[in-house]
Amino acid sequence: MAKTRPATCSLPWSGCPGRCPTAGAFARPSDSPHGPLSEPYALYLFGIPADPATAEAVTARQRALAEALPVSGRKPFTFLSPRETAADAFTPATLDRLREIKRRHDPHGVIRGNFPVLG
Fold first, then answer.
1. What values do phi and psi take at 13, rounded to 5?
2. What gap in Å lies between CA 109 and CA 20, rounded to an integer?
């Protein structure tokens, strides 16, 4: 049986690169910090505005799309926006565990990322 690609968003004005099915391995039990991703889809919205008015319009449209969709509120760590922190992706218990691991294995802060767990 031939595999088919999932449908993608054809609305360029939405800033939506497409629907990303999250079945299979993502939904299996996991001991990763985020745990299994059992939601049927992950949606990532972005926009590259040329001026403040366009930025406002893009943000408003993204907000309207997000509010119109049934969402769980969970967000993978790699989907965080610049205004968010690691605390927006992990439960407090998980974040505490990650912080302890970071302190124990990288006390000098050699390993860095866009969304530091100690930030």
1. -70, -15
2. 34
